[in-house]
Amino acid sequence: MFKDTDRFAYYLMILPGLLLLFAFTFVPLVYSVIAFQKFNPALGIQGSPWVGLDNILYMFSLRDARQVFTNTVFIATMKMAVVLVTAVVFALLLNEVRFLRIRRSIQTMVYLPHFLSWVILAGILRTLLARDGMFNDMLSVFGIGPIYFLGQPNVFPWVIIFSDVWKEFGFEAIVYLAALTGIDPTLYEVAELDGANRFQKMWSISLPGIAPVVVLVGCLSIGNVLNAGFDQIFNLYSPIVYSSGDIIDTYVYRIGLIQGQYSLGTAVGLFKTVVALILIGVSYWAASKFANYRIF
Amino acid sequence: MFTSRSKTDRIIDWLITALLLAAGVSTLFPLVNTLAISLSEKAAVSGGMVGFWPVGFNLNSYSYILNDDKFWRAFGVSVLRVLLGGSLNFVLTVLTAFPLSRSTRAFPGRNFFMWLFVFGMILNVGIVPWYLTISGYKLIDNIWALVLPGAVPIWSVIILMNFFRSIPKELDEAARIDGANPWQLLWSVYLPTSLPALATITLFSIVGHWNSFFDGLILMNNPDNYPLQTYIQQLVIADRPALHGGQAQMLAQLSSNTLNAAKLFVAMIPILLVYPFLQRYFIRGIMLGAVKE
Questions:
Q1: Which residues, in sequence order, are bridge partners of residue A50?
Q2: Among residues B29, B53, B83, B41, which one has the least CA distance to residue B210?
């Protein structure tokens, strides 16, 4: 049944993918050793002097590196929490809408930003949130502002968090909506006979019905605690808001590629990689333990 | 039996619908506003008078873009990378997912390779070694730098592999009894039965390639090689970093608002064109990837 020629065909099929995986994922891993060197592009990996853990230790001594770490964790965690809550509330409410056509149109409207790039969305936001932009025009009606949304360190992280909600809440709601359609309709009928009102049904049937999916999404988010969204922040931030808006990925980009401190940039990146691998391990472990989830 | 619904119930229905419609409209507003700005008079835009509808309707920005060589060159780079990258992603996803969907008896290395790919997916080595690798291959300023590094989209491989595994074994066995080899099996049994999953992964890669700007920014030194998103990023974002710039700079920015809005909108058009398909397949793809036993 299982012939050797068949096996050979399978190896042949997987070969191109393996080669590319090797060339673009594992070869960079080899380049990561420059985190332990004083790397000089002219000398290459072989010629550059080894410095042991100097770069790593230097990284921990940098004050802005610590700030950047805190910023990353804060922005990433708040994003996940606020997007999750918004998406759950949205899904619960949308589930109450009886007219299918209205439901569909609302879904069509809220999914769209997910598919657009942060370059486009940031371009739009920069106009809307400018000092003389539409947001400030609206606020001025209430006598507030003007607020420098993209230029005030205490406001900037919230602009990042809520613009991410704008882009992603609709899309994240998809999994909750799918879970809601899986709830046994007789549960609602029984509750109605017992005289439960709309919100009692939402609270005691719909919400527990999607709880396993909420737990799953929560578990999987653990792996993203260090991903605060490079594309988004890179296209919205400026030096004025580095103190609250600079994250690991943007920091590594500036240190490593713009300033050319290859070794330091790699060290910070390597630190992130190691922590992220642990976090992803934890998140998959949690997802399989609490939500019976396996990716393959 | 359906009990007649009370009046308060119906009022709540309307309130919820109104609330959600408001949420939908405000989600869409910034995009509609961009289109309206691109079609409006400069004076009306700088006066903050443009909302949902254009004020002083005109097509000046668009006729300007039509003659903008740099814009179209970048547009062409993007189209090329979508075509190259999309087809490469497609072929490699299929070729990688199929052997991985086999049992370990049919394909002994299966588990080892699976772990290798999953490890490759979650391993993110950081931007500096990644850049050094690609420049080591002498791919800087080469279109292949935008397609080869992400040529095997591992998440798509997993989705397709799971889909292949859900196809009834009977089809497989019937084809084998007829003497089909793995290539024939893939071509005439698995591919034709996996069209929804294939549509999903193709859309994943089209959207991904169209939207990415960062690889273009760091791997292309010559701005002529920028894909559209990178070109727009440089134009709309990088070139106007100063929020507290001088008066002259502010005025220059204001007058370019309509033109920038038009460029942003043109860059959205391809996504808008595939949006109906995205809604249908992408969302199903999310469920393919997410909901498992």
A1: A37
A2: B83
Share the mean pLDDT of chain B. 87
CA–CA gap between residue A93 and residue A109 (Å, rounded): 15
Q: What are the pLDDT digits (tens) for A34-46? A: 999 989 888 888 8
Q: Do A96 and B176 touch (CB under 8 A)?
A: no
Counting one residue from chain A and one from chain B, the pairs whose CB atoms sit within 8 A come to: 271
Say yes or no: B82 contacts chain A, CB-CB below 8 A.
no
Residues A265, B170: Cα–Cα separation, whole Å: 53
Q: Say if CB A225 and CB A279 are below 8 A apart.
A: yes
Chain B hits for A99, Cβ within 8 Å: 17
Helices (H), B154-227: 154-166, 169-177, 182-185, 191-193, 195-211, 214-219
What lies within 8 Å, CB to CB, of B228 at 6+ separation is: B71, B74, B75, B77, B78, B210, B267
CB A236 within 8 A of CB A219: no
Residue with tokens 């029984």: A190
Whole-angstrom distance, CA of residue B58 vs CA of residue B54: 9
Nearest C-alpha in A relative to B253: A127
The shortest C-alpha distance from B27 to chain A (Å) reads 6
- What backbone phi and psi angles, to 5 degrees, belong to B150? -105, 25
Residue B246 CA, chain-centre distance (Å), reads 37
- Interface pTM (ipTM) of the complex? 0.89
Judge whether B260 is closer than 8 Å to chain A, CB to CB: yes
Tell me whether A178 touches chain B (CB under 8 Å): yes
Q: Supply the pTM of this predicted model.
A: 0.90
Cβ distance of A31 and B129 shorter than 8 Å: yes
Long-range contacts of B131-134 (CB under 8 A, 24+ apart): B131/A256, B131/A257, B131/B218, B131/B219, B132/A28, B132/A31, B132/A34, B132/A41, B132/A262, B133/A23, B133/A24, B133/A27, B133/A28, B133/A31, B134/A24, B134/B219
DSSP letter, residue B4: P
Contact between A110 and B106 using a beta-carbon 8 Å cutoff: no
Q: Would you state the structure tokens that stand for residue A284, as one six-digit string? A: 């998959």
B214 close to A (CB below 8 A):
yes
The owner of tokens 């003659």 is B67
CA of A108 vs chain B CAs: smallest distance (Å): 8
Reported as a single tens digit per residue, the pLDDT across B125-175 is: 889 999 999 999 999 999 999 999 999 999 999 989 999 998 888 888 888
